[in-house]
Amino acid sequence: MKKKVISLMMSAAMAATVLAGCGAQAAAPAPAAEVKEEAPAAEEAPAAEEAPAAEEATEDAGEPVTLKWAIWDESTTQYWGDIKAAYEAKNPNVTIEMVDLGSQDYMTVLATELSGSGSDFDVVTIKDVPGYATLVQKNAIIPLDDYISKDGIDLKKYAGATDQVVVDGKLYELPFRNDFWVLFYNKDVFDAAGVDYPTNDMTWDEYDALARKVTDTSFGSQVYGAHYHTWRSTVQLCAVLDGKHTILDGNYDFMKPYYEMVLNEEKDGVCRKYTDLKTEGLHYSAAFSGGDVAMLNMGSWFIATMMTNLASGEYDSSLCGNWGIVKYPHAEGVEPGSTLGTITGLSVTTACDTPDAAWDFVKWVSGEEGAAVMASSGNFPAIMTDEVKTAITNLEGFPTDDASKEALNVSNLYLEVPYGENVSEINSILDSYHGSIMTGEMSIDDGIAAMNKEISALK
Amino acid sequence: MGKMTGTSNIGQIDELQRALTETIERARVEQDDREKKKLILNIEKYNSRIDKLRSGRMISRQTRRDLIAYSFIAPNFIGFCVFTLIPIIFAFALAFMKWDGSNPVSFEGIDNFKRLWGDTFFKAAFKNTIIYCIGTVPLTMIASLALAIILNQKVFGRGIFRTLAFFPYVASLVAITSVWKLLFHPSKGPVNNILYTFFHVPQENLPQWFSGGLCVLSMILFSVWKYMGYYMVIYLAGLQGIPGELYEAAALDGAGTWNQFRYITWPQLSSTTFFVVVMLTINCFKIYDVAVMLAGGGSGELTVSATVLVYYIYQKAFIDWDLGYSSAVAMVLFVMVLLVTIIQFRGQAKKEA
């Protein structure tokens, strides 16, 4: 049985190599509609993963182990399968069983699955920090510190990301994927308007002026200088990039200038209205690929989406094929390259019977070998080395200009949501009042005052 | 087990028989209802005991019949217990506790209920739910009754119109909310376009149908439109149950249309109306899907102006994992529905008396 599975894996990997040879067209297009909200969903990359070298001489052929692994969107995200195939080839005694919980409410479903004692997951993927906090509070996942010190893992290679998810001095997850926010722009729109491209060193004021410059409000040929997706992160979290504030502060007055900037842009037709976007449920990928948006602030997961969907013809390359990225704009006096990040991590469950095997898997995926697998499909692993960056920028379809390559150098990474007590409640409250401010139900001042009041009321 | 009608048994049976006859005599002359019921129960008891002794079986015939009857109920009742009754009792208990689904439960007393007073989101959800109910129940009732009366007459294309009125009820909620969102789109929707073009409403004053104060109004309009077809069918059945002679007699006495409605149709429909109002109120308190679909906007998160109780229960339970507090909110909802139902039952009982 075990052999059968392994041989199946091998043939699948071989088939992947053959496909890669056929070129990008062979990659199955992932419909944009399936790119779910919030999911840093990377679709099929132009070049499929190299088949892992078959290792006949098994290093540690121990007892056969099956690890049950919780993931989302298996069919539209290539790296899950890549990781499984590569890890199983390396460890023939281990079978990874993936369980797809869907991306829409992944963390809610996972928390339900892990409630009580009936769970049989061994390794779970952690999609966001509020969900992580919930699992830690529920004692559903175990601290990894003992393993980390035993195996001598240097957390410095995660560039500070792990420090922001430490709970009472303990770390419960290791990140394997690290997305950061950049500014996507459509070069054709700038060319048509005769305006210079955005640069890697822009303040928010310069960015705002640039957005207004490329905007065209004449009916029928509208061009939007900027686009803000309906997430709280796109507006509110520009404010935490000065390094002085976080969303756990309890006082949110520092967010006011950014709300003013976006709402003024909305009023002047520089960006689409929040209420329109909410009513339509328009996805940011549809907005940007429509060719009438000059700049979009979004996470680096969208890079892989752009490359795949342009290669497959899903996006019209005459509308958005000429794109580039630059670093996130920064506040006055802050180092360029300061940006928001989102980590995706792996944890071992409390219910796991074989924690050592599960830990080995977690360690491998979040380590250098896992990073190489991630980079091969255009995704950003948590360990960013120069090789990884080169691997990604050399992929077919990545913008060829130097500024886009330079944009991948991050100087300071602030997690969208760092760990804190009550982070789940804080998240809900901020989301709610973000909606109230953006729809105009509340003035900016009232909305921020309500945030301050509600969050300081939490214990 | 064979028949063991020994001498002692026969003696016992005689004794019981005597007691039975005596009780029957007493029951005959007893005036007090309560006493009479008690005596009848006793008669049954004697009967079953005599029966048991005569047949010499462990289980009397009556008990056996009862057991068979219970066994028919059992499959449904066990399911009801496991999936409904026990969870409800558990939720009652949880309302006084703190639990996150994994860690040990701790008793909190009425702290959860105290927290409700200071909770902005709870108060908003409570307010929105009440407004929604107050708006939806009478409007739906009036609309469905009016439709039923019109479509009960011999009008042209009656079948088609009945089907059309019923259609929103059977159509998928997701599909029709999408259509509503297109119609009421704040800047591209035809409704706002008409307001802008024909009524010259300035662009910045065009209503935002799915946010702010109008959100609940949109929800009310939507629900009335979606559910009036269903209640129309119930009213139609009620209307057809009214005997035609009543109208004939009224017409002979010179009653006009309004008087016929006022003194015949409306009183005759009172039990139908009672049913419709109870069902509508309970369904209104349960509102969740309509709010999330109309005002959730993709992420399914509701702001203060659109949040409703059931959504808040869900959010507290499965996003924040505060199951105790969430149960406390559910208790509030339960008490509200209970109160409304009791009031309506009382009113109905008075009317019938």
Residue share in helix of chain A: 40-55%
How large, in whole angstroms, is the Cα Rg of chain B?
30 Å
The computed structural class of chain A is alpha/beta
Let me know the average pLDDT of chain B.
87
Shape of chain B: flat
Shape of chain A: globular
Distance between the termini of chain B: 55 Å
Q: What is the CATH superfamily classification of one domain in chain B?
A: MetI-like
- Which chains make the largest contact? A-B, 39 and 33 residues
Number of domains of chain A: 2
Return the CATH architecture of one domain in chain B: Orthogonal Bundle
CATH level 1 class label of the largest domain in chain A: Alpha Beta
Order of helices and strands of chain A: HEHEHEHHEHHEHHHHEHHEEHHHHEHH
Mean pLDDT of chain A equals 83
Instruction: Give the C-alpha Rg of chain A.
Output: 22 Å
Summarize the structure.
The complex is a heterodimer of chains A (459) and B (353). Chain A has 459 residues and is α/β, with parallel strands linked by helices.
Topology:
The complex is a heterodimer of chains A (459) and B (353).
Chain A: H1 2-22, E1 65-71, H2 78-90, E2 94-100, H3 106-113, E3 123-126, H4 129-137, H5 145-150, E4 174-186, H6 187-193, H7 204-214, E5 224-227, H8 233-236, H9 256-267, H10 274-280, H11 284-289, E6 293-299, H12 301-312, H13 317-320, E7 323-327, E8 338-348, H14 355-366, H15 368-376, H16 386-393, H17 402-406, E9 412-415, H18 423-439, H19 444-457
Parallel strand pairs in A: 1-2, 1-3, 5-6, 8-9
Antiparallel strand pairs in A: 3-8, 4-6, 4-7, 4-8
Helix pairs in contact in A: 1-2, 4-18, 15-16, 18-19
Chain B: H1 7-29, H2 33-55, H3 61-94, E1 97-98, E2 106-107, H4 111-117, H5 120-152, H6 158-170, H7 173-183, H8 190-197, H9 214-240, H10 244-252, H11 257-268, H12 270-285, H13 289-295, H14 309-319, H15 323-352
Antiparallel strand pairs in B: 1-2
Helix pairs in contact in B: 1-2, 4-15, 5-9, 5-12, 5-14, 6-9, 7-13, 9-13, 12-15, 14-15
